[in-house]
Amino acid sequence: MVVAGCATLTPPAHAPAKSVPEQPLARMSVATPPPERDSVEQLLRGEFALGKGDLATAADAYDKAAQVSTDPKVAERAVGLAIATHHPAAAQRSLARWKALGASPEDLEQARAQLALSTGNTQQAEKALLAMTASGDDDAWRRFGRVLLHVRDNAQAAQLLTTVATPARLPDDVDAWLAMSEMGVRFGRNDYADEVAEAAVKRFHTGATYAWQAQLKLRAGDIKAARALFEQAYKRSPKDAHVRLAYAAMLARDKRMKRAEAVLANGPQTTETYAARTAYAAHAKDLPRLRAIYAQLVKSDGDVRASSYYLMGQLAELLKKPRQAVDWYAQVGDDDPHAFDADLRRAVLMYGQGEHAQAHALAERMQADYADSPDDVSKAAQLDAELYMSEHDYKRAIAAYSVALRAKPKETGVLYGRGVAYAELGQMDRSVADLRQVLKLKPDDIDAANALGYTLADSNTHLAEATRLLDRARQARPHDPAIADSWGWLQYRLGHLDKAEQALRGAWSARRDAEVGAHLARVLWARGKKTEARRVLKQATALDPHNASLLAAQRTMTP
After folding, report:
1. Distance CA 176, CA 170 (A)
2. In a domain, 511, yes or no
3. What is the Cα–Cα distance from 45 to 361, expressed in whole angstroms?
């Protein structure tokens, strides 16, 4: 029966097959807009182009997106890109769309002004800026300033400034008046700047207006008027930090450092007032005032203290408190503009307190921490090298100097240092190569000429070249004991013992240095003045018993 039943369900071979009903989803079709009508796709295209710096493609994509998007920010971005890529037609389209989507009148007038300026239409820009600044918008004059600051032609910007920002049109806002006057200076219209500044003084009578007019007078060379205006500014606003800073700078210009510091001390303190007070007190060598400033800073709270750690470190150094200075410098944050200098000073101070290993470790860590700045890497490595030089560890000094030179290959100070270090190790060829490179990069470097001349004399080679170099150095600095020492040593190598003794006696009298003493002792020994030679050698040994020239002299003078 099962077989029979199955057989009956099988259609005859000649019967037509029944069609399978179509599924509902198969009958559905989704309309896909063309790419230029898909705002999301265009926005993605625009952002991708911006990421690559392709402004033209980005502008085209945002132009298309703005026409179909209902987001006013898309239209605003499209306007900006069209203006930036000098496509006025696209900018007008996007402006119309932005307006339809509810842009404020002030936004539209600002954009119209920018568009007009991009096409050189000063008259149309002026019309838009007049409308924008007459709108009563609280931010209108700031908008005006931003527009002018992006104008490439200073003459065009100055014309718009003097036409739109007249004293009769400026708002009852002293900051706006001062900003417009300052823009007059920026665009070379000092007459306008003076007119607005004078009108601001008469209208507002604030310390800030007097101080700004004083700065304009100072700029024009009218010192007497500037001084009187600054005094008026301080009387009007004795607690205003900006007024006090400006007045103090005027006082410092008149060499009245103590008065400048007193003005700054009278009122609320900021990081800037503390820094200026420190500078003026330090210039006056007023230790009591420096101690007072330091005590105030130590007790200060909040942002002022947090932003003054570097200044506190400097003050601690001035007051001979190296341990405290190290601690303050250690607290300077990584985002502080003085972070690198704080680390540099900390390494120097740690070394001075006998923490040699820690100082070297910090100098090396700085090279990694500031790896993105070749200048900082070079300075940190140079410091490390100089610390090794003071330890007479010339091999490590050379290694550190080489790191500095990899960061900045043409740094003459580093080349000079490495050349000296090579000479101390007796590697004269390398020393000469570095010092010659210094003179190639900086032909007028007298120190390098002296060092190279001395190195050649010390190695008893190229004495004619050494004579030319040292003769030039002597003419440039006839009373320099280091150059006199080099010249005396050259005369010794040339066999002119009388000239050598004369030059070296002068250098030894001018500066008691182990190197100079060693040279003089050897010349005296060679001239048969052995008792005096031993006396000079003993004095030089007390100064620096590890000096290489001194050790060589001791070997030479041994009976």
Report:
1. 7
2. yes
3. 50
The verdict on residue 521 lying in a domain is yes
Answer whether residue 295 is part of any domain.
Answer: no
Q: Could you list the residue range(s) of the whole structural domain that residue 550 is in?
A: 479-559
Q: Which long-range contacts (CB under 8 A, 24 or more apart) does 370-376 make?
A: 370/340, 373/340, 374/407, 374/408, 375/407, 375/408, 376/340
Evaluate whether residue 530 is within a structural domain: yes
For 218-256, what is each residue's pLDDT tens digit? 999 999 999 999 999 999 999 999 999 999 999 999 999
CATH number at 551 reads 1.25.40.10
pTM for the model stands at 0.73
Query: How many domains, the chain?
Result: 1
Q: Are the beta carbons of 453 and 486 closer than 8 angstroms?
A: yes
Task: Summarize pLDDT for 341-389 with one digit per residue, the tens.
Answer: 999 999 999 999 999 999 999 999 999 999 999 999 999 999 999 999 9
Say if CB 65 and CB 39 are below 8 A apart. Answer: yes
Q: Which residues have a Cβ under 8 Å from the Cβ of 197 and sit 6 or more positions away?
A: 177, 178, 181, 209, 212, 213, 216
Q: Which strand (E) or helix (H) includes residue 80?
A: helix 72-84
